[in-house]
Design a protein that fits this description.
By secondary structure, the chain is an alpha/beta fold. The chain has one domain: Carbon-nitrogen hydrolase (Nitrilase/N-carbamoyl-D-aminoacid amidohydrolase), CATH 3.60.110. It is built from six helices and 14 strands. Helix 1 runs parallel beside helix 3 and helix 5 runs parallel beside helix 6. The protein is globular and about 55 Å long. The relative contact order is 0.16. Bound molecules: acetamide. The site of acetamide has 7 residues, from loops.
Length: about 270
């Protein structure tokens, strides 16, 4: 099956323009599971709470989710992308999952990064996995990768593919995700953005690009450049992610010793 991700440079606050760009890029795809970056339609660097309020949306009723649903329906796509969500007077760094049948689900980022902590509430959905015709798909958002528990929790719930909308600024994730994939035997699709945001004095955020699709044996199947808009795709076989045995004696899920991992859950 075909999976992909779209790396580009969103313009801050220009939702319509950014969505149009996504729509045009995704015209090239059919019957594909495609991942978009974190905050792909709004941009990332909020200056204040007011900007967060103005740009956040209800899910699934809001403009961005509806626009993604339309694209998904027209092209037979499954799409995962990140957006700021308004819910019960709180704001979350969220990702939606839509398909040809419409809205599938929502994930709220668990581990907030840097000034996201000023503007957003830590996610309360927990890690979720959806069973689709593209296999079992779980979501984590950007900095969630830094916590191995995120990918592990998705793998234990049966994820074949981790969809990973991102706005990476630290350099480590492209090297680290192959390890997450290897230790959980899952595919991962990290959709990052490019460009620089300088919306706050003395604070430049340079996004590292390098979106990638990684296989359960830790191989980078395809990786984008640091600075160019790119649509990456790869043909994958999700059944590879369901074989958790490494040899006749070792299975990476059933060999776990949760009774000795108590401090992890403290
Ligand atoms: C990040 O979580 N956006 C680095």
């Amino acid at each position: 099956m075909l999976v992909g991700c779209y790396q580009f440079e969103p313009v801050f606050g220009e939702k319509e323009e950014n969505l149009l760009k996504v729509k045009k890029a995704l015209q090239k795809l059919k019957n594909c599971l495609v991942v978009l970056p974190e905050f792909f339609a709004t941009g990332y660097q909020f200056r204040n709470h007011e900007e967060v309020q103005i740009l956040s949306e209800d899910i699934p009723e809001g403009y961005t989710t509806k626009a993604l649903e339309e694209i998904a329906k027209a092209k037979g796509l499954y799409i995962i992308g990140g957006l700021p969500e308004r819910f019960n007077n709180r704001y979350y760094n969220s990702a939606v999952f839509v398909g040809p049948e419409g809205f599938i689900g929502l994930y709220r980022k668990t581990h907030l990064f840097f000034e996201e902590k000023i503007f957003f509430t830590p996610g309360d959905t927990g890690f979720r996995v959806w069973n689709t015709e593209f296999g079992r798909v779980g979501i984590m958002i950007c900095f969630d990768w830094f916590f191995p528990e995120s990918a592990r929790t998705l793998a234990i719930q049966g994820a074949d593919i981790i969809a990973h909308p991102s706005n990476l600024v630290l350099p480590y994730c492209p090297q680290a995700m192959p390890v997450r994939c290897l230790e959980n035997r899952v595919f991962a699709i990290t959709a990052n953005r490019t460009g620089v945001e300088r919306r706050k004095q003395g604070q430049e955020l340079r996004f590292i690009g390098k979106s990638q699709i990684v296989s359960p044996d830790g191989k980078v199947i395809v990786r984008a450049s640091e600075d160019r808009e790119e649509l990456l795709t790869a043909e994958i076989d999700v059944s590879i992610a369901r074989e958790k045995s490494i040899n006749p004696y070792n299975n990476l899920l059933s060999d776990r010793r949760p009774s000795l991992y108590g401090p992890l859950c403290a």
